[in-house]
Amino acid sequence: MFSWKALRFRSAKDVVLPLSLSLRGRRKKAKTHDDSLGPPLRCSRKLKEMMIRHYYLARLAKGVKPVAWVTSGAPVELLRALDFYTVYPENHGALCGAGRAAQELCAAAERQGYSPDLCSYARTDLGHAFSGGTPVGKLPEPDLLFCSNNICQTVQYWFKQLAYHRGIPLVLFDAPFIPDGESEPSAAVAYMAAQLRACVPKLERISRREFDENRFSEVLRLSKESSESWGRVLSTLKARPAPMTIFDAFVHLAPIVSLRGLPVCLDYYHTLLSELEERVGAGIGGIREERTRLMWDNIAVWFKLRDFSRLFASHGCSFVCATYTNAWAETMHFLDAKDPFEALARAYGQVILNRGLGYRAALMERMIGEYQVDGLVFHSDRSCKPYSIGQYQLQRTLAERCGVKTVVIEADMTDPRSYSEEQTSNRLQAFLEM
Fold first, then answer.
1. Which helix (DSSP H) or strand (DSSP E) does residue 226 occupy?
2. Residue 52 burial class via C-beta count within 10 angstroms: exposed 0-12, middle 13-18, buried 19 and up
3. What are the percentages of helix, strand and coil residues in the chain, rounded to 5?
4. How far is CA 209 from each of CA 63, 81, 102, 163, 340, rounded to the nearest angstrom?
5. pTM (2 d.p.)
6. What is the mean pLDDT of residues 408-414?
7. N or C: which terminus of the chain carries fewer CB neighbours within 10 A?
């Protein structure tokens, strides 16, 4: 049956967007570049065009494809097999934070009675739901909310609020916490795999599509290879000098979060990896003069990303690894399992924030050795309690075991009202002097 919406979507995808992005590239003025940083990555333009395309097509997807809003830790591969168009509120929250639009959206949620102590990603998203505000133009109305509590419990209640306000179905993937010492969580894996199998009929009804086993297998392959490619991208930072910094990686993380399981994601990381390997061969660093190598723990402070990048580069400090960026490569090797539902359960059930503090300490100790880290910056994120709880213990443990210098800064990933410039500057200056 002919559909004007489908025609508009295809025309935008195949004609309008390629033309407008080409014209936009010609008109774009070169940004001023900080002398303490290395040359900008050529891939950055391609990344920006990919994300513009993703959010623009999202506006037109409703009525052409089923639309789902998804949490970052949910097994999106199930939805890909049913041709859902997916939007990630956490990724949208990061964009709002980087564009300094989050404070206004958080305030909109607070005016509706939500506490300022609630996760700023949740407040940003709820504020968008109440006000319609967003720096990406417009987000599509979802047919489904799909979330997992493997990263935090907040997303479960946040998405319940969205389901209530919008009157749409919510599917929750419940991932039991894996305490230290439980190396093979077989009972938890069986429980999670059973949930995923049970999701399929409900997703078929919502999408009005039949689950395609062959497509599901192909999506799993693309997810696994994309995550492995992202892991190889991060591994190039073991070189001296590192060809980019973690501040770059925070930006180039977007496809593995939002486009995981799609060919465009894998293609992008092949291109980025090739450029980074070229820089390693030529000895080109992410900063002009790398003297000290650092690790970052927790989510980025999105509204300070550029400022922090310049500050540390001016002191010869290169961030070469981060627990957050590593999380998107850490568990996807489990997708090799013969049973695809068990594979998803293992991959998504054993992420860093669903494991004990001992596991996290061991992982960070290994990364400190592999990346030759001299110092460690802990971001105590007011919004992300699961990530921030235990950081002072980790600080003591890793300082003793590895002999690295450490500092804790207190901030928020998107809400600048929870950030003190003076306090943070004092702590970082003392750290840099060490």
1. helix 213-235
2. middle
3. 60, 10, 30
4. 14, 9, 36, 22, 20
5. 0.94
6. 97
7. N
